[in-house]
Specification:
The protein is an alpha/beta fold and 246 residues long. It has two domains: 60 residues, no CATH class; 179 residues, Rossmann fold. The chain is 55% helix and 11% strand. It has twelve helices and five strands. A five-stranded parallel sheet has the order 2-3-4-1-5. The longest helix has 28 residues. It is elongated and about 70 Å long. The chain starts with a helix and ends with a helix.
């Protein structure tokens, strides 16, 4: 039997994981005593693992997370306001499937973006699509989309993401169009996707930040209902790191 030809055929069928596992079985004597069924099962498992890994890398590339943060490195130091039980529940990613939202607030440097990206990495590991965007930049691009006719495509792309992370909410004032576009984005996600919103100001002040009573009611109704709220406290994590901490 021409084993190299079989490996090439597997690659041709895009069964890369199986091809690599088969090639390994040919060179490692540890597999010699296994039955055909056992070796085939190992090849199938290798193919599944390879596809999962490829999907994970593809999701991360498309997500454009600000930082690839490992959930295992979450810092639960006292006074930070990060509850281990709450985070353990979030790391199961069940809230994404339930189309719930997470609202993360806290002063500059308290680690809002890092935690959101860690959650983004965790959902990507489970094959869940995620998109990270800064709120002001997104709304600027959508404003351009109204002018060049790409707004519908932009909205469709955002709606398809199973998890959308919007950073720096409230950092810059919303325009009339920006308020409307934000409402459209969130409305498209009701019952179909989960959203993480990050902002420096407490959630109770977001109504005033939006600065339009009717639109603020509509936006917050889509965000706050049954959401998980993380209010981070303590000193800047950047200063902690500069002293040699996490």
């Amino acid at each position: 039997m021409n084993h190299n030809h079989t490996v090439a055929q597997l690659h041709g069928l895009r069964l890369t994981g199986m091809a690599e596992a088969f090639a390994q079985q040919l060179t490692d004597t540890v597999y010699a005593g296994l039955s055909f069924e056992q070796r085939l099962q190992m090849m199938v498992e290798a193919e599944i693992a390879h596809r999962d890994s490829q999907r994970y890398r593809r999701i991360l590339k498309n997500a454009k997370l600000k930082v690839i943060a490992a959930p295992e490195d979450l810092d639960y130091r006292q006074g930070r306001g990060l509850d281990k039980a709450v985070m353990a529940d979030l790391l199961t990613c069940a809230w994404v499937g339930a189309h719930r939202n997470v609202l993360i607030t806290g002063a500059t440097g308290t680690g809002k973006t890092w935690i959101a990206c860690a959650l983004g990495v965790q959902v990507a590991r489970q094959g869940i699509t995620v998109v990270y965007r800064r709120t002001a930049r997104l709304l600027e691009e959508m404003a351009v989309g109204h002018e060049d006719g790409t707004i519908r495509r932009q909205r469709n792309q955002l709606a398809k993401a199973q998890l959308l992370i919007l950073d720096d909410f409230g950092l810059t004032a919303l325009t009339n169009r920006g308020r409307s576009d934000l409402l459209e984005v969130l409305d498209d996600r009701v019952g179909t996707g989960a959203t993480i919103i990050l902002g420096q100001m407490p959630v109770k002040e977001w109504h005033g930040i939006i600065n339009d009573p009717a639109l603020a009611d509509a936006i917050l109704d889509r965000l706050v209902h049954s959401s998980v709220k993380l209010d981070l406290k303590g000193e800047s994590m950047r200063r902690v790191k500069s002293r040699g901490g996490q």
